[in-house]
# Entry
Amino acid sequence: MFPIEPKKILIGFICADFFILALYLLFANHPLLGERVDLGQEGNLPTWYSSFKFTLAAIAALHCYFQGKQTPYNRGWLLVTGLMLLMSIDETGQFHETATRWLMESSGGNNLRDYFLVSKEGGALLWTLIFSPIILLVGGALSVFYYLQFRAHPHLFVAGLVLVGLFALAAGLETMQAKILGAENYLDASSWSQFKIFSTLEEMAELLGATLLLWIHYSFAWLKNNTSPE
Amino acid sequence: MLRKFFNLFLEKKWLLGLIVLAGTVFVFLQARYILNIMSGDTLSKTRPNLIYITLDTLRYDHLNVYGYSRETSPNISQLAEDSLVFENAFTVATNSAPSHASMLTGLYPLQHGLVDNGMEISPQSPILTEYLSRKNYDTSAFIGYHAMSEESGLNRGFANFEYIPIASHEHEDKDLEEDTAGFTAFLDWLDTWSQKHPAENKKGESSKPGNFFVWLHVQNIHESYDPPPPYDTLFMPIPPPQKLKGFDEDFNLRCANDLAKAWRNGLLPESFKEPAVALYDGEIRLVDDYLGKIFASLKTKGLYDETMIVLLADHGELHFETYAHQFAKPGPGHTGRYYEPVIRIPLLIKPPKSAAVKTPARSQAMVSTIDLVPTVMEALRFPALPWLPGKSLLQAQDKRSAGDEMVFLQETPYEEEYRVVRDRRWKYIKQVDEQGKTSALLLDLENDPKENRNLLAEQPEKVIKMEAILKEWGDRQKLKWTSHKKGISEEMRKELIAGGYLRSPSEKK
# Structure
């Protein structure tokens, strides 16, 4: 069932993450491939790859559920599975971006834009702020759940904290990109290159975060599979 | 180590519970914070109204509320009874257009791009009027000087924008009705607005459905000091036009050019100074009387209590003060002169009743026009805009930090950039001309209140410190919009030359 060691999974996906980055850096300006490998765009290779990892993380979480004792705590893995699937669907379907665009058209969105001095062009990038209570709630709950689950494997919990940090970094960078698009001079060379750097870093943080997520779930399932039941 | 960390929470489950609880509270607060921002215009159906009254070229020390003995301003004194009066208020620019642009944007000239009269504010720069307009405020402006007309871009966001210059320039044939056309237009607008927004509660001072923001710019006090009767002789008789050495035609005290030429060339008889100031004071009294009508109208219509009134000058004025150094042009005038009578301004803020600010009150805090927009945002119950450099003046008087004890000015008149920093004791003025040549003035206001001694050479350490403060201030203003200087119209050129803001071709030679 688990033929590959977790370490190899981790190294393999990190290599794949950097391969995606290399593709982007090499072909960013290519007339045909450029958009398909652009880390900052949606609905292309990097997002499908990310979505794929979330699906794998969901499958691994489901394994964790089946391999654990049938306790109320263990049922949390079902929630995690659902969450991972939702993230996977959202990544492909860009639902949160669509919801944010819709919200930013309202007077509430106007108020947000005024408050954070973000132009219409950058409005949709404020989704991290709009959904921050939900993100914090889910992120916090996930951290507590990992803490309770990984008490025998603290290194997995530490990895969980790192991935939370990576996602927080990505959210922060996304807000900063929105700020850059709010300024009048956003099209000038220095702002644009700053925007691209932030965008690349943010997407890489997300890709690496997703890899860690997958690795944590896979490792836990693998450990459970290779040790005596609790 | 890691194990211990794990065991700690496993052994003391209440600690884990506490963390979960704290996290939940944090999430709740975060949700409230976001919702508060988003619901900015739905939390309150009716907000206070806002009126900016900007009195061009008004010296703070010529108002009774600041201790002036001649009765120039009884109605403003009356307004002060309901207001916060700021005794150490400063402008951010000595040119009218940059100064007003800062009042409307809450940004320094180097940020909004309008750094000189005749320029246009950057179309991308955020502006209070557009913000309020988006919140369904009816916006209207009555402007008395061309530098703030449509060409300046300061009309952005105003549904109604009327440029009403002082029509009469015949000194012997001044017409009160023409000189006060701006006030009349405002009063008419207020009547119309009030009819469209009838009071819900006939009895009272309660708030009305709908809101307005009106900007009334008053040009009367600006030179020439030439009020129509009866204000021309209200305070003392004025010498008639007469022969004067150095003048081919009759010298007329009411004519700005005559007055400036005579004073700067040492031709003005000493006995003419007082009448000139009396004329200036006559203009103030005229303005005050008409402001009285506006305040009365607001009260009659039941709008006074829930209207925030901000009354201030865009800059002051030099009269006949003399300075031992030749750093700037002598008076009468104001542009590019950073002496106290020019940079200090009167500032009265009558908050809306609903803001629950204790009035009357006087503040000694060092404040500037950069603080106006944050103050308005608070009084009108909008969320504070974190990117604005100023701070609200409503409640935070006792909370202003040491860093707030400084004010900054910046603009580019005559194509020379000026940056000024002033604290309670020191003032440092830095000028960079077209060729990049720098000159500076350091003044110790505590020991030299008449501003005569340039301490540049005597206080090198202080100069270094002030330079560093100015640099740090400039670096701190991250948000900047490019200025869009366009070719000015012939009308604007004429107005600017007439106002002394632009050198005529003969002067340049």
Summary: Residues 201-208 of chain B have pLDDT under 50 and may be disordered. Residues 100 and 314 of chain B are 6 Å apart (CA to CA). Chain B has two domains: 49-167+175-400, 416-478.
